[in-house]
User: Fold this.
Amino acid sequence: MFDGITFEKQGIPAAVICTEPFRPTAKSMARIQGIPEYRFVAVPHPMGSLTPEQVKERAVAALDQVLHILLGK
Assistant:
């Protein structure tokens, strides 16, 4: 979250992705960084134990949300 907000403050578009259990932490970090409405994508947990194909499936499922954030729609 911190990196994404730092990039955004520098004018570099970013899309932060975290897993569901970290949603409250991400919201808190955004608030602390002064952008409480900062949008991010939350995907199902866990990620570390997934196969490459399963990671790809999650990435494809999150793609529309990521593009929405990056393109400002």
